[in-house]
Give the backbone structure.
Amino acid sequence: MIKVTVMIISCIFLFACQSTKVDSQIDNHKTKSAINEVELTMEDVCKVAKCRVNKHIQFRTDNGNIDQVLPLYWPAAYKDKISILPGDKLFVEAEVVNGQLGNFKSVNEIINPEKTIQFSFTQMDSSLGMMLSVKNPFPTSIKYHLNMIDFGGNSHKTSSCPVNANLSVFESWPHVIPELTLTDMHFLKETDVSSCVY
């Protein structure tokens, strides 16, 4: 039973990697080219963004361990979206665009600390639960929308807490999450409610 389940989960990951359409693996919408309104394939995106190559995925589930290498996978950072997989430790540079944070760029090391957001997404040692930490380098609190991607590639909204200026936030879930996507990152205004909501 464990081998069958692991095989099914592996097939889901492989299907996501080989899919020709940008789907819920980056966000729940198809990506359109501004010039000709054509759906972009993963190969198209990889020509202009740094896709993940031979990405090792490893985490535990109720039905056994997932231990797989993804030959090619969507970028960790692309335009105004961030994709976070279990085990990821990401450094993402962000630019301010019309009051929003965007033009994300995944980097291997921190060169511009004043604009590099740090992410870590791990599975807790004693359970199947997951933990995300986000470190905010900006002098203003930030907030974003967070979606969980399940094993079928479906997107589910989840709450996220504001990340105060120059501090970190830790969020956890009691279950396995194969991928998180983060969108709509923005600075909190003084009039905004500072609570853990979508």
About this structure: Helices lie at 2-18, 42-48. The chain has a mean pLDDT of 84.
